[in-house]
Amino acid sequence: MAAEARTDDAGHARWSFRLRVSSTARTALVGEWDRCRWVWNECVAKSKAVYLRNKATGEKRTCGPAQLDRMLTDARKLTPWVREGSSVAQQQVVRDFGKSRAKGQKDIKDRLPMHRRAGMPRWKKKRDALPSLNYTRRGFRLKDGRLHLAGGIVVTVVWSRDLPAEPSSVRVHQDSTGAWYASFVVPVRVLPLPETGRVIGIDWGVKETATTTSDAHDLPHAQHGKTAAQKLARYQRMMARRKPAKGKSGSNSYKAAKRQVAKLHKKIARQRQDTARKWAKKVVRDHDVLAVEDFRPKFLAKTTMARKAADAAIGATKSALIEQARKHGRVVHLVHPAHTTMDCAQCGARTKHALPLSERTYACTMCGAVSPRDKNSARVMLVRAGLNPAGADRGSPGGVLSRLAA
Fold first, then answer.
1. 293 in the Ramachandran plot: left (φ > 0), alpha (ψ -120 to 50) or beta?
2. pLDDT tens digit string along 364-406?
3. How far apart are CA 227 and CA 365, in angstroms?
4. Which of these, 57, 167, 179, 203, could form a disulfide with 184 (CB 3.0-4.6 Å)?
5. By C-alpha distance, which of 389, 390, 385, 374 is closest to 203?
């Protein structure tokens, strides 16, 4: 299985491939992860020790990458077990820790609310943390279809397709089902599609995952989670009956039930991802410009619609749409969602009060326009993006696409 993961702003994408790992390679990878996890925990201990010392003495000592690099160098000199591992993977752990710590400190300095803070780096426990190893270009190579990692570790990659370019780094990790994957970072290549002269507005929702100005491109709620709910509940009951006492390892039956739950969650996630990508590719192929609601579905987790909203996977669908648009060179306008359900797409008038969710028809008191609520919101996206909603199904308004392209 190969999948193009989220594209970052720097123009890179991750291509993930399944790995066939022998028992020898698995032992070596787990041993490498044990060393990297030890390095991470040492960084956490060093950071906490510097903080407590500064608090007690009033000093302003730092615990940045330079200090942590020296700590790693000393550890490799004094500890043969650490020295047996790859310095590339261990140095990357230090880099990742530095980024995580800097993000946590920035959130504290900016006085963000606690629920929005990333938090300072924490200990990685052997029982909870899944293996994840990062290698830069000098820490791996591809030869005869196999992945050679620093330290003499060789694994077989299941190549379902060719990499679009030479990878700059790779992340070898194990998921909750026990399967191993390699995620290669490669530059994104823009693959332009033929121009269609069409624009589309997209509004996110719960009854339908996406409502658009084109009826043929609406995305109904697939309900993959609801379909698997009965089987998932059965596996979770099996886990509950076999749950071990605190501080003790679970039995083989408990681990088997836990593995079944993880596999089912993985299947649901892949179904949602597949639905999102197929729909996104269709929308991007048929339209040149997309006006998309910049919707943040996180707040729905605190409402009575939390389960249905999570099953709709709005965030994953939105990400897939943006990725496909970047890949094929389409223009995307992210529209702020404020008052999009209260404005009229025809005359721009705004209702004096917010419409309840039970009211599914929008009726403008100024111009008399009546339309489904979500369809009106989708047309509002086009208006706010500077596009003519009347041209959504019949082509682009005069001169708009040429100005955007320029």
1. beta
2. 877 878 888 888 889 999 988 888 654 444 343 343 333 333 2
3. 41
4. 167
5. 374
C-alpha 180/C-alpha 150 separation (Å) is: 17
C-alpha dist (Å) from residue 405 to 86, 195, 393:
48, 11, 20
Q: Which helix (H) or strand (E) holds 383?
A: helix 373-384
CA neighbor of 318 nearest in space, from 397, 381, 367, 226? 381
pLDDT in tens, 139-184: 999 999 899 999 899 999 999 989 988 999 999 999 999 999 999 9
Question: What amino acid is encoded at 118 in this protein?
Answer: A
Alpha helices of 58-167 — where are they, by DSSP H?
65-78, 80-83, 87-109
Going by DSSP bridges, is the β-strand pair 169-174/180-187 parallel, antiparallel, or unpaired?
A: antiparallel
**Token digits for 315?**
């965030």
CA–CA distance, 285 with 290 (Å, rounded to integer): 11
Owner of token pair 């200990």? 123
Residues in the chain: 406
Q: Are the beta carbons of 93 and 121 closer than 8 angstroms?
A: no
CA angle (93 as vertex; 60, 79 as ends), nearest 5: 90
- The single residue listed with the structure tokens 């000199």 is 77
Per 3-state DSSP, the chain is made up of helix, strand and coil in percentages (nearest 5) of: 45, 20, 35
CA 9 to chain centroid, in Å, comes to: 14
Q: In what order do the strands lie in the sheet with 199-204?
A: 219-220, 208-212, 199-204, 289-293, 331-335
Alpha carbon distance 386, 376 (integer Å): 16
CA distances from 309 to 74, 164, 250, 398 (A): 50, 35, 33, 38
19 and 144 in contact (C-beta within 8 Å)? Answer: no
User: pTM higher than 0.90 for the full model?
Assistant: no
Structure-token pair, residue 115: 């629920």
